[in-house]
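Protocol step 4 of 6: structure prediction from sequence.
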Amino acid sequence: MPLSPAITSYNAALPATHREIADVLAAAIESHLARLPKAVRDTAECRVWHRHPVWFLDGNPIVGYSPVGKDAIRLMFWSGQSFDEPGLPADPPGTKFKSAGVRYTSAADISAKDLKRWLKKSVEIQWDYKNIVKRRGKLVRLR
């Protein structure tokens, strides 16, 4: 799946410190999705959604990133709380989502090993965000 021109433009418009992190994350996400079985890979798409790069499987958001303040990029996994990963902090208690994420202040902070494991789990473990409005805010686990 080629990187969306909108995401390429999004990354290019970031400040240099953010751009380097975003480019590493986008390449890792794309590389991971490219190795998925064809049936899964064919449902994948990436686009700028709610003003941030997000990757979807079958219309369900799985991973994305966005700037946080002047010095960090936050990588977020929509179903990340279910990954059972100590290095991937859950969003604050009380939120209705199952998301978790990590902040990076430089590309050197990104652990390729951790990122690969989290991306694998983002495909294997998913909550149905695609239909959250239809279900009136109730999340249902897909896998």
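Step 5 (inspection) to follow. The longest helix spans residues 16-34.
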